[in-house]
Amino acid sequence: MIRVLLTDDQHLVRAGLRALLENDPEIEVVGEAEDGQAALEAARSSDPDVVLMDIRMPGMDGVEATRRINEWHHPPQVLILTTFDDDDEVTRAIHAGAAGYLLKDTPGARLREAVHAVAAGDTQLSPRIMRKLMDRVADDAPRELPPDFSELTERELEVLTAIGQGRTNAEIAVEMYLSPATARTYVSRILAKLGARDRTELAIMAHRAGIA
């Protein structure tokens, strides 16, 4: 079971999220919090695997709560879920250690998939956030293939391109006629070959190389 803590200042939003997540038999909502400070306390007492975190809340906001959670010895993964796609908010959340950043118009199935992904150690960004992030870094480096790309197979380059376009592992598997396990294996191999920390860094590499 993936243990999830919901953090949002609106009760109706938390109730809706609980209903969406608990449609998945492998997800258990173990607590709720209405602001960042309450999230810290609830996370310590309920020991979640994933904290679903809003950003703008009264008192301590979600970014500050994320930063404090990531100072713990064994912190849960924090998945930001918000209505705001402001560049500064995205940057602050990523710098604070958020494992993902999704918008509240994300479909329920995609949200459940993201919870599974961040619980497994993957990074998740909504396509709109990914595009905005890529637009900010695309001009920071020349559009040329770095030497390490020569180690990638043609199929791995295709997977890297898809990552740069914001595709999830499940979407890559469907589009390339792969099993989900094979898609995950490709991503793991690319991470290892390029020495990247996570999918976000892979996406940045793909955009800087001009292949996404």
From TrEMBL:
Gene3D superfamilies (alphabetical): 3.40.50.2300
CDD domains, A to Z: LuxR_C_like, REC_NarL-like
Source organism (scientific name): Nesterenkonia sedimenti
Keywords of this entry: DNA-binding, Phosphoprotein, Transcription, Transcription regulation
An annotated GO BP: phosphorelay signal transduction system
Protein name listed in UniProt: Response regulator transcription factor
Organismal lineage: Bacteria, Bacillati, Actinomycetota, Actinomycetes, Micrococcales
Response regulatory domain mapped to chain residues: 3-119
Keyword Translocase: no
